[in-house]
Fold this protein.
Amino acid sequence: MRPPATVTLHDTLRVALERMRVESVRELPVIDDAGRIVGFVDEGALAHVYLSARPPASTRTA
């Protein structure tokens, strides 16, 4: 049996999204350096962070 899919506090948004895609899951536990679960991240939270970091469509240049 393989270990469950997780992300660390140091992983990027891209790593988390790719891991979710590969594992076909919508949520992943987030672990600290000692391997303890410190939280969970889901697709909605990642989408929120991504969209918050981008300028609104009306101010973007082509």
The mean pLDDT is 91. The CA atoms of residues 30 and 39 lie 5 Å apart. The longest strand covers residues 37-42. The helical segments are 13-23, 43-53.
